[in-house]
Structure formats: C-alpha cells, structure tokens
C-alpha cells in the first residue's frame, strides 16, 4: 500500500514538473503592457490651468491651451 502511495506521489511530481515546464514560456509578460503605461508629457492650460497631454494641447504663441474656447481670440 505504501509502495503504491510512493508511486502515486512520484507520478504527481513528474506531472507537475512537466506542467510547469510546458506553461513556463507563456508566463513571459506581454510587450504591450509596457507601451500602454508609457509616460506622456503634460502641459498646463494657460487660461484655466488644466493639464492636458502635450500632443492634444492647442498651442499659440508658445503657450498651451486645453481647448479651442480657451485660445486667446486676438485676431
Ligand atoms: Zn483651459
């Protein structure tokens, strides 16, 4: 009876080892998780002070604005 138990434990250990060996390559972190949390420079609106991403901000005369309504209308 004890001999069967040892065989059973050995089979479970071998199975667990093979399972870990097969699933190990899939545990590498995906590459897109790094690009998603990428740092984007923020700029403050000259009028209301709201911070917006620099690539979405509207700039005029070296100053940044959050939206078209806050652009100075000195035309
Ligand atoms: Zn603004």
TrEMBL record:
Domain of life: Bacteria
InterPro entries per the UniProt record, alphabetical: PP0621-like (IPR049708)
Protein name from the UniProt record: PP0621 family protein
